[in-house]
Design goal:
This protein is α/β, with parallel strands linked by helices. It folds into two domains: 232 residues, TIM Barrel, CATH 3.20.20; 128 residues, Beta Barrel (Lyase, Ornithine Decarboxylase, Chain A, domain 1), CATH 2.40.37.10. The chain has twelve helices and 19 strands. Strands 1, 12, 13, 14, 15, 16, 17, 18 and 19 form a nine-stranded mixed beta sheet that branches. The protein has an eight-stranded parallel beta barrel with strand order 2-3-4-5-6-9-10-11, surrounded by six helices. Helix 2 packs parallel to helix 9. The chain binds pyridoxal-5'-phosphate. Pyridoxal-5'-phosphate binds next to helix 10.
């Protein structure tokens, strides 16, 4: 599918009069439309709820937009809980899916009344010494082995640090039941960024069958199944985006086949999507600073891997549009780089693009999730601003760019305090 930026060159020229590049910009209209589509896809399940994975894009203004659509927060750390609290989420609006959890984080989650998702059996004993058990609690499952879809290996749960074995899960439920817990959830995250329609339905079947088995063995009430994240987006132009309506329908079929006949037709479906909710609705906008032509042709941007780590870290593809040159032929081959002293600081390698001049603006697509949030300060590079393109076409600064003062803020050193 053709990948079109949600802003034009003239919009960017206008915006950069106030906010210089680089920055991430998010599209409110796209975010809201997509959130409504997800809800429609699972409307057959009265208890359905999406908990946005805060780690994907921890910005309270974006969380607020999602909250207006009825979406909660999936947190994994103390600061993510603070963000959720700040946007007015509490109680069952928050899912706390952490691992290697510090006591302080459990305390905060309990104080907010969040639904706590235990990653390990041992954490239940830890928790018992920290906070009271709630009526509804959740446990994370790891089936081990390989996770395959149509004979293709999608991921290897046997090598994943998350979740409990089936035996442990059973023991956990009995332990929690003894602590007075009344309603139970089961969670699993078995493959990331899936674009095959089959991921959620296959995961749902595994968890639904497990739920039926555990309910029979332990006599507990399973209140929800949390399908977690993992529904992917089409980063490449030759990929088809996920059809969320078809995914919702396929999960419904498994639900009717497995849960309803077992008398478990009251089970709510939860999701914890991050990437699917925001990735396509964010872009990193950068400007071409320099070009060099040695053994290859390089285009150097004012953004670097510190603003978007996925290409350097995973070799991930992010589509690039040279703004204003959307209709030009892509007849030049470039490596598009940032300025880190790291040779993996490349947004694209051997990418066919229109002829580029210094000063051109480029849009790096699909940075709305796991983009800004994975940023870092290596080489003293500063984190960029985040902007929101509102539904009415106006632009709001939702996070200012860092300054050297922010970078030095944790140092107490003469000569740096006056910067
Ligand atoms: C990262 C994460 C998610 C979100 O994953 P996406 O791939 O962004 O959908 C959801 N739940 C948990 C527990 C996670 O760690």
């Amino acid at each position: 599918m053709e990948k079109k930026p949600f802003v034009t060159l003239s919009q960017i020229q206008e915006i950069t009069r106030t906010y210089p590049t680089p920055f991430h910009i998010y599209d409110e209209k796209g975010i809201v439309e997509n959130a409504r589509k997800l809800k429609a896809a699972f409307a057959w399940n009265p208890g359905f709820r999406e908990y946005f994975a805060v780690k994907a894009t921890p910005n309270p203004y974006l969380m607020e937009i999602l909250k207006k659509e009825g979406i909660g927060a999936d947190c994994s750390s103390y600061t993510e809980l603070l963000l959720s609290e700040a946007v007015g989420l509490k109680g069952s609006d928050i899912m706390f899916s952490s691992n290697v959890t510090p006591d302080m984080d459990f305390c905060k989650a309990a104080e907010l009344g969040a639904i706590i998702n235990f990653d390990d059996l041992s954490l239940i004993d830890d928790y018992a010494g920290i906070a009271p058990f709630q009526e509804t609690m959740c446990c994370r499952y790891n089936p081990g082995g390989l996770f395959t879809l149509q004979n293709e290996i999608m991921d290897t749960p046997k090598d994943a640090k998350y979740g409990m074995t089936k035996e442990q899960l059973k023991e956990a439920f009995l332990k929690l039941k003894a602590h007075g817990v009344k309603h139970f959830g089961i969670h699993a995250f078995l493959a990331s960024n899936t674009v095959a329609l089959g991921y959620y339905p296959k995961l749902a079947r595994i968890l639904f069958e497990l739920a039926v088995e555990l309910a029979a063995q332990t006599g507990v009430h399973i209140a929800f199944i949390n399908l977690s994240g993992g529904v992917g987006v089409a980063y490449r132009p030759d990929q088809e985006p996920n059809d969320i309506m078809a995914i919702g329908e396929a999960v419904r079929e498994v639900y009717e086949e497995v849960l309803v006949p077992a008398g478990m037709g009251d089970v709510a479906i939860f999701t914890e999507l991050g990437r699917f909710m925001l990735a396509p609705y964010g872009m990193l906008i950068a400007r071409v600073l320099h070009q060099k032509h040695i053994w290859k042709d390089y285009v150097g941007l004012d953004a670097c891997a510190a603003n978007l780590m996925r290409p350097a870290m995973y070799g991930a593809y992010h589509h690039i549009t040279v703004l204003g040159k959307e209709d030009w032929p892509c007849d030049h081959k470039y490596d598009v780089t940032g300025g880190l002293c790291e040779n993996n600081d490349k947004f694209a390698i051997d990418r066919m693009l229109p002829e580029i001049e210094n000063g051109d603006y480029v849009a790096i697509h699909d940075t709305g999730a796991h983009g800004f949030s994975m940023g870092y300060n290596y080489n003293g590079k500063l984190r960029s601003a985040e902007l929101l393109l509102r539904t009415d076409g106006s632009v709001k600064l939702i996070r200012r760019a860092e300054t050297p003062r922010d970078y030095f803020a944790t140092l107490d050193y003469p000569g740096l305090e006056r910067i």
